[in-house]
Amino acid sequence: MKAAVVTTPGTIAIEEVPDPSPGATEVVVKPAATGICGTDLHIMDGEFAPAYPIVPGHEFAGEIVAVGSRVTGYAIGDQVAVDPSLYCGHCYYCKRARGNQCENWAAIGVTDAGAAAEYVAAPMANLFKLPAHLAARDAALIEPLSCALRGFDVLPRTMASSYLIYGSGTMGLMMLSLAKRAGAESVSVVDLNPARLETARRIGCSAAVTSAEEIEAPRGFDVVIDCTGVEAAIRDGLQRVGRGGTFLQFGVAAYDARVAIEPYEIYRREITITGSMAVLHTFDRAGELLAAGVLDPSIFVSHRYPLTSYAEALSQFRAGLGRKILIEP
Fold first, then answer.
1. How many helices (H) and strands (E) does the chain have?
2. What confidence tens digit (pLDDT) does each residue in 256-276 have?
3. Which terminus of the chain is more solvent-facing, meaning fewer CB atoms within 10 Å of its CB: N or C?
4. What long-range pairs does 291-296 form, CB within 8 A, spacing at least 24?
5. Under DSSP, is residue 28 helix (H, G, I), strand (E, B) or coil?
6. CA angle at residue 286 from 285 to 289, to 5 degrees?
7. Does residue 230 sit in helix, strand or coil?
8. Please, are residues 154 and 284 in contact by the beta-carbon 8 Å criterion?
9. Rounded CA gap, 203 and 184, in Å?
10. Which residues are CB-neighbours of 134 under 8 A, at least 6 positions away?
11. Alpha carbon distance 167, 83 (integer Å)
């Protein structure tokens, strides 16, 4: 089969690789769509240090084309989305229901062959069966939505809270949509990209600005969420948290990123600083939310590329052009 293969950091090519075979409790999925996200850039740049070569692609959905001998509840032809998380189940954190902190953490498309390919193997336990009305080519949005849900799981959820979100790419827009659904009093968005700010307005934010200085908020915000991983945005966001408020580091920063904090202000204003990492017991909930129409795929997906154009799609993502970019093998 054909697959996009990162052979070494900075090098990617479409190559012929062996077709996957399902283990006893695995299925083989033919992806209908595979999303590109910041993790794929980190893999391309060698920052996540997987074993190369690696086939990326951890956001995907498609059709089951083969099943293992002990698979139950699923059959060839079923349309599914796949949670890429591969927790060990026996380490200190897994046994405390914190699988996203697994000491032996692995994931499809990060440490194991992913869905930037014509076929990909996945555990039966990681499948979410799609309802008939939800197209598999749109259901690749379930994985990033499940990450956004994990972010909301660590936040206080108080009705009529004010939110400030840095970044209006896919994740920022998802956070915006979830905050509105969670009963926010206001949700403001900061981004330097005019096209992305326009999408935030289309979804229905309270303000879409290029600087938080443009928003009148003398008491700050109850919840500030960074979806950029950019030092300047994080630094600014920490200053915008109101008394008793929460700052969520959601965006993936570079390993060497550093931001100074003011311990006295954290103490005085009783600020909570927290983070959220990937997926944790949120994948099925995200599937149910997408099926219920919480997101409009036609708004969130801006580009669809064939597998042969994976490198071009990755370059476009790096340049910050568009919203969610999908590969359709």
1. 9, 17
2. 899 999 999 999 999 999 999
3. N
4. 291/130, 291/131, 291/133, 291/134, 294/145, 294/177, 294/178, 294/181, 295/141, 295/145, 295/174, 295/177
5. strand
6. 90
7. coil
8. no
9. 14
10. 79, 290, 291
11. 25
